[in-house]
Amino acid sequence: MASFTLLVAFLASTATIFAKSAFGDNCTIYKLSDAADVTANCDNIVVKDIQIDAGQTLQLFLKDAATLTFQGTITFDYAEWLGPAIWIKGNALKVQGAKFDHLIDGRGAYWWDGLGGSGKQKPLLMKIEATGGSVFNNIHLKNCPQACVGLENSDSVTLTYWDIDIIDGNPANGKEVGVNTDGFYIIDSSNVKLLNSTVRNQDNCVRINQGSNMSISNLYCYGGRGLGLIAGLSKTDIEKNTIKDISLEDIMVLDAKNGIQVKTISDAGKGNISNIYFKNIRMANIREIAVNVEQDVVNGTSSGVTNNNIPITKLNMDDITGTLAGGDSKLVNIVCDPKGGCSDWSWYRFGFSGEGQQSVCNFVPTGFSCE
């Protein structure tokens, strides 16, 4: 009996040694087929110099409190599909890029057709679903085919020190190249912090479609359409059409079409946008509208027909300054539904220079003059 017990102990220790050698404290994913075993067995994972097969997702569903590090260059073979190319999911995660030694390259030029979502299918580069105080730090993305980072179904998450560079998708020879290349979009998420990051792109630097209790601060947004809150994704679910308790502070928006956009989709179901606070937003060379609020959006554009299905309340702004670029630009455009679509707004300390058209407001916030 004693010898049998010793044999069992020996086999158990051998299995432990083997497990540690195969899936030790530091486990590296070099190819797509490594991912399932490594994520199931490792607490400290490195994704290194991987080229992901066409139309496939690098699925990183991690153990609680796992650490994930991107190292070297991560690239993707071409396929027309919606992605995501990378999908990270877990609780209490620490996700980071190796300092000075990583790049997630979306190779967007293979997809860019100047049509964005209206053209060929293009993959979301990275989808994140995280909870429990997860932190995503020091991550460098380049040339996303379309949207870069989708934060979905998440709670208690911090994203900090990101660098998203899609400047190669800027218009060339008078034609659009990269389109709908949002830096971050956020949906169905709460208690989110996004800070200390840079986005160079052709669409929203940050776009919030649904969620609550978010703090967005210390961003540098170059090109694109600045900061966007756009509600109305559902025909039936009021929660999916709700954005509330959001602060956006200490942000620079440079050489962009827009600085701030707040929009509701007029043929959507019920919802609300409430308790939104913009403070210390610096803009330069805004080519279209610095602050644009519309309650008449259908299929992505202003329809001219407003609706109060998603009222906008407590939309507050303070210390919004910058420059307009040329005679076609405009400081403010407000199109609210006259049947109580907008209420209880306070806007203070607006200061802009540069030639532009007269602001248009069918609702005037307290503290602001539309003249």
Automatic annotation (TrEMBL):
<dbReference type="InterPro" id="IPR012334">
    <property type="entry name" value="Pectin_lyas_fold"/>
</dbReference>
<dbReference type="GO" id="GO:0005576">
    <property type="term" value="C:extracellular region"/>
</dbReference>
<protein>
    <recommendedName>
        <fullName>Glycoside hydrolase family 28 protein</fullName>
    </recommendedName>
</protein>
<keyword id="KW-0732">Signal</keyword>
<comment type="similarity">
    <text>Belongs to the glycosyl hydrolase 28 family.</text>
</comment>
<dbReference type="InterPro" id="IPR050434">
    <property type="entry name" value="Glycosyl_hydrlase_28"/>
</dbReference>
<keyword id="KW-0677">Repeat</keyword>
<dbReference type="GO" id="GO:0071555">
    <property type="term" value="P:cell wall organization"/>
</dbReference>
<keyword id="KW-0961">Cell wall biogenesis/degradation</keyword>
<dbReference type="GO" id="GO:0045490">
    <property type="term" value="P:pectin catabolic process"/>
</dbReference>
<dbReference type="InterPro" id="IPR000743">
    <property type="entry name" value="Glyco_hydro_28"/>
</dbReference>
<keyword id="KW-0378">Hydrolase</keyword>
<dbReference type="GO" id="GO:0004650">
    <property type="term" value="F:polygalacturonase activity"/>
</dbReference>
<keyword id="KW-0326">Glycosidase</keyword>
<dbReference type="InterPro" id="IPR011050">
    <property type="entry name" value="Pectin_lyase_fold/virulence"/>
</dbReference>
<feature type="signal peptide">
    <location>
        <begin position="1"/>
        <end position="19"/>
    </location>
</feature>
<dbReference type="Pfam" id="PF00295">
    <property type="entry name" value="Glyco_hydro_28"/>
</dbReference>
